[in-house]
Amino acid sequence: MNDEVYIRRCIELAQKALGKTYPNPLVGSVIVHHGKIIGEGFHQKAGEPHAEINAINSVKKDDKNLIPESTIYVSLEPCAHFGKTPPCALKVVELGFKKVVIGAMDSHDKVNGKGKKIITEAGIEVVSSVLENESRQLNKRFFTFHEKKRPFIILKWAQSADGFMDKDHQPTQISNSLSKQLVHQMRSEEHSILVGKNTALHDNPSLTVREIEGRNPVRILIDFNLEVPDTFNIYNDEAETIIFNSVKDSEAKHLQFIKIEKENPVQQILDKLYELQIQSVIIEGGRFTLQQFIDQNLWDETLIFKNPNLNLKSGTKAPDFHRNPEKSEQLKECEVLYFTNQSVD
Predict the structure, then answer these.
(1) Cβ atoms of residues 177 and 305 within 8 Å
(2) Which residue, 5, 46, 143, 337, could crosslink 304 as a Cys pair with Cβ 3.0–4.6 Å?
């Protein structure tokens, strides 16, 4: 039971860095000596020390001698490879912890049991798969990316009570300021955001984080014939931007043009994003683009912002999406419906 308490604390710590560790996973770590936490930490940013190292470094000087009699808890299996930082598994062995408790095993090719093996072979007791489901949920993006070889996909749109995304095909305010803040929070937490040509031309969105403090996601535009003018907001230098098109391959400053075929673009885009190590993507519009992902069952979560008091009568129809929400929440007059795909490809 105590193991679960401390792994839950690891998860809480790890969540503090949501959106800041790409392409690395979210990881938290806690060091416990005779029922007392003497150190804790989490991975804060790619290239910086991992959770275990931050937890070790947080142990007070007078308590360092307690480490060999302590248990180190970590929400994800300690890494076993040299990257921008040395393997955490070797550090755990070097310091001689009494016991290691792991939330979820790491399915990344470079780890995948190797960290646990290093620690076990050093004679240290290892317990794994404690709160495994919660630990995997914490890193749903990371696990989807490495196990399915594609980004974690979130579909998102706003619609009126009668199922329209705009009024007479003109930009229309459907949600409210609270839901806008939630959307910007989402953007800061996910790796990238994608729209089609029509949405870029129709709404001229910036696709950045403005309502809150946070990092801007990588912007992705599908524009086969490069019809969106480079004076539009999506081309500004506020964020790294990828343009999938059928005209050219080129790269300059924050812009990257990637040439793909017009046939079956969704799979080509996901393959390219996997190559670029983009771990998650919000598909934010429009109807045509969203419908392609829905029809191919290529989505993991969906958020629909619905205004039950607004009837637009005409305009762009919302995507055909026949699912029951897992949960909903009220943001003033706007209802947010949450869906999870249990049969994703």
Answers:
(1) no
(2) 337
